[in-house]
Amino acid sequence: MRWQRQLPFLRWSFWRLAMGVRNIPKTGQVGDGREAAAADYVVANARRNDPEHVLATIDDFAYTKAYLINIGEEKGALLDAAVRRADPTLALELGTYCGYGALRIACAAPRARVYSVELSADNAGQARRIWEHAGVADRVTCVVGIIGDGGATLDALDAAPGFGPGALDLLFIDHDKNAYLPDLQSILERGWLHPGSIVVADNVKIPGAPAYRAHMREQQGRRWRTVEHSTHAEYQNVLRDLVLESEFLG
């Protein structure tokens, strides 16, 4: 695995990301065009209609061209395993970015309908290019918006095919870290989860989602059964991170 040999501090694209990190909650992008460049790289280099090769090509771009903030190879394996345990027919991702997480879900759950919510229309466009190239655009949908917009995005999802009480088998959270807990609570209020639904949260240590982690600890054995996976931040082997996998108990 290439992440085992990666030192982020030696890469200019890592430091460019660090300088642009304040842009991400506002724009969804680092600010140097790497997201569009990643989609261009996929279209130019990945085999069409081969989603596994598309994932590998995105990883290759992140290792050799510009550091990306999708879940990445090491943590992606944890997501894959959680998806297989959930065996979803309906999955929701918060934070599309370049479409990598939703594509991993689609690969691990070939019968699932996957929806992904993204604040950046530009990112949504790049993700759709990647999904079309991978051959999964017929079952992966991006909704542009945010959960905390007063209900418009939640209403759009509620009207989408498959959504309804207890219909959501898997939720993957990988967007604004301050929104993890309130957005989860909004989804709970809609009643979409059922006992046994699985929620996976990335970046709980870096950049960190302390309120979300504290809530899951406080609710352990009550509303949630949570496992904390100790791992590394994406595409390197120095900075430690946490991925939380939580089963909804009802």
UniProtKB/TrEMBL annotation:
Does this UniProt record's set of keywords contain DNA-binding?
no
Q: Name one GO molecular function term.
A: O-methyltransferase activity
- What Gene3D superfamilies does UniProt report for this protein, alphabetically? Vaccinia Virus protein VP39
The alphabetized UniProt keywords are: Methyltransferase, S-adenosyl-L-methionine, Transferase
Superkingdom: Bacteria
Q: What InterPro entries has UniProt attached to this entry? A: SAM-dependent_MTases_sf, SAM_O-MeTrfase
- Please verify whether the record's keywords include Disulfide bond: no
Q: What is this protein called?
A: Putative O-methyltransferase
Q: What is the lineage of its organism?
A: Bacteria, Bacillati, Actinomycetota, Actinomycetes, Mycobacteriales
